[in-house]
């Protein structure tokens, strides 16, 4: 009876999943108990699900945060396991009252054996092949006792049968009494166990193949990852190399920019130093003569002394006649230097630090919005801006509007003759001359109408010849101040003369993004194409050619200086941000005092 009870207890201490003695037993909500490690494995099999399904009854248990350790422990079972672990097993064979402590357990006999009985058991030929386990391994839970199952109803009977329909082991007596009806398929327990183990082996083999299949897949993923890792390494190396090269380029660009600033500022400083040197020399000269003349304690009496004194007095008087210093020239030089700005790039599309640009001194809103049509420097050094809605606005070099004339004339072009008479081209392509007092002169010019010639533009050369260009007709008519018919015509083959400017014996034609220098027979001598949306040109006070390149969509203007052969001399204004107008129409001129005027339909910009 004691051995049967021990077997029942041993079976109760086995986890239904791992079939070993419970380790850290945890209770599910359905009251079934499993090892914590087995529950961790079961939960892992369900992925990230927090619901754990009991393998026996399939009831679900909520596992908060997938932490099995938070499930209640089976304290009674844990205590029982400890008691069994600490309880000595005695030999099942010895008949004496003083039981001898067992050292092994025979799985086939289902008996605990002391050392003496174990030695005898080992000598019996029929028992040599029995599975014998050391008690130390059982107590350390390395091996679980799997002896014969004893029937709970008939404890002396082994469960040697298995009912496939009831899925239960049973002893022979239970089979006769409970499993005799039709439909109960009874087989030997050993046959079932053998079949079960074979199916386990098949599952194990299939699982191994599937595991191998997925392992190959994992290995393939590792290969792909290694390829990506190699790409990352290669890209990183390339980036580091590009970075080092970029640093070299940026360092070189930095040195160029610093040199450019130094060159621009040193030129201004040299101008100011020369002005200072000249003033200091005059101070020294004036001081020396004044000292010689005025620091005398005696009156010159003889003729030589009188003559010397008179000469020195005359020299002093001549020195005193020199005009007071003109602050305008050093102020202009200073403005030239102060307008130098380093403009950092807004984006990193190009590997550049930025550009050295000249700052704008003034930005003036025109009185008539979106109506500027013409601009020209006046004889008295101011700037005339013509508006197609009517009127010519006169601006000083500091951006102040001084007056408005011809308010009722729709202006298309403005020019001046050598006697300062106005030459006005109106919206109907008619030319009219006006005196300085704005009196209209009765001189008629036979120009092409706006229908026949299209939009027209106007310029006047040093010989008072008037040039009118036509967009549609693609030609230029030349008139004398006396009026009448054109003296001759200049063809514009293959391009539209949008704006024209007189330049020595040539004309500068602006057309789209191209500047052409043509002679007065129409032959193109030099040509310059720029990458901007629009290019406008004007003659500088130094008889060079200034161009304004406008990126209309972005709202940037750059101003450059060119030689009379359209070779680049220097950049004066680099990518200056302007308020983008609705219409893409621009004019460039220069004040006699040196300031550069750039005009949009809405605003006048004055650069130093």
Automatic annotation (TrEMBL):
<dbReference type="InterPro" id="IPR011042">
    <property type="entry name" value="6-blade_b-propeller_TolB-like"/>
</dbReference>
<dbReference type="Pfam" id="PF13445">
    <property type="entry name" value="zf-RING_UBOX"/>
</dbReference>
<dbReference type="InterPro" id="IPR047153">
    <property type="entry name" value="TRIM45/56/19-like"/>
</dbReference>
<dbReference type="InterPro" id="IPR000315">
    <property type="entry name" value="Znf_B-box"/>
</dbReference>
<dbReference type="GO" id="GO:0061630">
    <property type="term" value="F:ubiquitin protein ligase activity"/>
</dbReference>
<dbReference type="GO" id="GO:0008270">
    <property type="term" value="F:zinc ion binding"/>
</dbReference>
<dbReference type="InterPro" id="IPR027370">
    <property type="entry name" value="Znf-RING_euk"/>
</dbReference>
<dbReference type="InterPro" id="IPR017907">
    <property type="entry name" value="Znf_RING_CS"/>
</dbReference>
<dbReference type="GO" id="GO:0005654">
    <property type="term" value="C:nucleoplasm"/>
</dbReference>
<dbReference type="Pfam" id="PF00643">
    <property type="entry name" value="zf-B_box"/>
</dbReference>
<keyword id="KW-0479">Metal-binding</keyword>
<dbReference type="InterPro" id="IPR013083">
    <property type="entry name" value="Znf_RING/FYVE/PHD"/>
</dbReference>
<protein>
    <submittedName>
        <fullName>Uncharacterized protein</fullName>
    </submittedName>
</protein>
<feature type="domain" description="B box-type">
    <location>
        <begin position="89"/>
        <end position="135"/>
    </location>
</feature>
<feature type="domain" description="B box-type">
    <location>
        <begin position="146"/>
        <end position="189"/>
    </location>
</feature>
<keyword id="KW-0862">Zinc</keyword>
<keyword id="KW-0863">Zinc-finger</keyword>
<dbReference type="InterPro" id="IPR001841">
    <property type="entry name" value="Znf_RING"/>
</dbReference>
<keyword id="KW-0597">Phosphoprotein</keyword>
<feature type="domain" description="RING-type">
    <location>
        <begin position="15"/>
        <end position="58"/>
    </location>
</feature>
